Amino acid sequence: MAATDFVFGTVGSPLSTPKKPGGTLGGVKRLAELKLGALELAWVQSVRVTLATCEAIRQAAHEAHISLSVHAPYYINLNADSDEWPKSRKRLMDAAYFGHQAGASEIVFHPGSYFAQSPAQVLRVAVPRLRACRDELDALGVSAVLRPETMGKSAMLGSLEDVLTLSAEIEGVEPCLDFAHLHARAGDGSGNSYAEWGAMLDRVAERLGEVALRRLHIHLSGIEYSVKGERNHLPFAQADLRYRDLLTALRDRGCGGRILCESPILEEDALRLQRAWRRLTGPSASTPRATRTRE
Ligand SMILES: [Zn+2]
């Protein structure tokens, strides 16, 4: 695969995964049948896997050529109070440890809440906490990248600048760019054009270097929002998200990595994105691309 290509997949097993074997193993098999290439394990409530299950997932994904990531439990908050923080921390550490054993190279998590503090105040707490998590994981041999996600509500830690600061400050931390969240977060319909997507990507390159654009981890879906931000995820066909413009901005900057679909119709929209991407980058596309060689 060319370095600047994207692999597409779903957060959670495809909806069309047969009941047997079902679960993650069935999901891996189903993604391969659909000719998708990535799965994010949705460990969003808690991390409840054995090492034997992790090994079975790792094997299955390796054989099916499916790239794995983990979505850590929702309830992680780098800005939690001192009573709550140890529990939050354990959720993140368990997701990373068991995810790594299962063959996941990326661990996505929601960074937390501001609790009415300024982003700068919150980051003064969040950065050292996350750095200590990273150091402990490194000592355990857990090489998976920690990926704080951009969040869809303005009260939540997780603006583009927040996740870029966490990433710039700590080696082994890189952003999970949820562009639907970034669009919804503004609340006014902005963040939905080629120029705006391009400016966000340029900002990523400015703070983390061009190299970060070659290994992006992206979440994408349609989204419904109010002035306060995200309401819920929607299929692309029912939403205003201009994903083709986003894909074009990604193409024009030579971006690559993974794009995971979180739409309610998971694999259908993941395939839609993959088709759109291939139309933009394939042999018949107008711009000559290195990715041509792949076809
Ligand atoms: Zn998420």
Task: Write up what this structure looks like.
With 295 residues, the protein is of the alpha/beta class. The protein has a single domain (6-294), classed as TIM Barrel (Alpha-Beta Barrel). The chain has helices at residues 23-33, 51-64, 85-101, 119-139, 160-169, 179-186, 194-208, 243-252, 266-281; strands spanning 6-11, 38-42, 67-71, 104-109, 112-113, 145-148, 156-157, 176-178, 216-220, 222-226, 229-234, 257-261. Strands 6-4-3-2-1-12-9-8 form an eight-stranded parallel sheet. Strands 5-7 form a two-stranded antiparallel ribbon. The longest helix is centred in the middle third of the chain and has 21 residues, at 119-139. It is globular. The protein starts with 5 loop residues before the first strand and ends in a 14-residue tail after the last helix. The relative contact order is 0.14. Residues 289-295 have low confidence and may be disordered. Bound molecules: zinc ion. Zinc ion binds next to loops. Zinc ion binds at residues 71, 110, 149.
